[in-house]
Design brief:
The chain contains seven helices and two strands. The longest helix has 55 residues. It is mostly helical and 215 residues long. The radius of gyration is 26 Å and the shape is elongated. The protein has a two-stranded antiparallel sheet. It folds into two domains: 87 residues; 83 residues, Cytochrome c-like domain (Cytochrome Bc1 Complex, Chain D, domain 2, Orthogonal Bundle), CATH 1.10.760.10.
Length: 215
């Protein structure tokens, strides 16, 4: 069953890459053709030809830019999925290891400690903001000193988050198009994180980012 979305994702990635290469290749060929005609034909380009050349160049540049953005989005999504899968596998391994190491009495709970008291269970359900940052590939696009990441696709969080309130940080995650940092194109950051995270996870991630960049 999982093969169907995987094939769809691979097909989308191939289409994005092919679109980028085709648009970029056409732009290069067009530029070379204009340069060649300019050297071979006197009076080229005329005013009317110049308008057509300019319009064609704009279209090719825009198409190349769109292809580059789509390709970057696909690569980011693919890295995020791999990180999530790796995190789930690690959690499953840890859970299995803890279960195997925990001694049990005959049909009862955990074995008592040296003091005669049963060990308290580990807290569960608490979201870890730093782990969420790593598992969802945020560091692939952002630099954050505390997480040891050096991504350059998006803004450096150590520079843009200080002074921002928790609500502002939350908005930048769930609605990145609301405020676009200067020097970065709109639409590079996906807008689906509001659905990806549970409310507790989002609170934990916001608290983590606010804490480590507010020092």
């Amino acid at each position: 069953m999982n093969s169907i979305p995987q094939l769809a994702s691979s097909g989308a990635g191939f289409f994005d890459a092919a679109f980028l290469y085709i648009a970029g290749g056409l732009l290069i060929v067009f530029a070379l053709a204009v340069a060649f005609l300019g050297m071979r034909k006197e009076g080229f380009p005329s005013s009317s030809q110049l308008k057509g050349i300019g319009a064609t160049a704009v279209v090719l540049v825009v198409c190349t830019g769109i292809g580059a953005i789509q390709s970057a989005r696909f690569e980011q999504s693919e890295r995020r999925e791999k990180n999530q899968e790796a995190a789930k596998e690690a959690q499953a391994e840890d859970a299995a290891k803890q279960e195997a190491e925990a001694p049990l009495t005959e049909g009862e709970g955990a074995a008592p400690t040296a003091t005669g008291e049963a060990p308290s269970p580990q807290a569960s359900g608490g979201a870890d903001g730093k782990a969420l940052f790593a598992e969802n590939g945020c560091g692939d696009c952002h630099t954050l000193a505390d997480a040891g990441t050096t991504g350059q696709i998006g803004p450096v969080l150590d520079e843009v988050l200080p002074g921002m309130s928790a609500e502002m940080i939350r908005t930048s995650i769930v609605d990145p198009g609301a405020t676009v940092e200067q020097g970065f194109p709109e639409g590079v950051m996906p807008s689906g994180y509001g659905d990806l995270f549970t409310p507790a996870e989002l609170d934990a991630l916001v608290a983590y980012l606010s804490d480590v960049t507010g020092k």
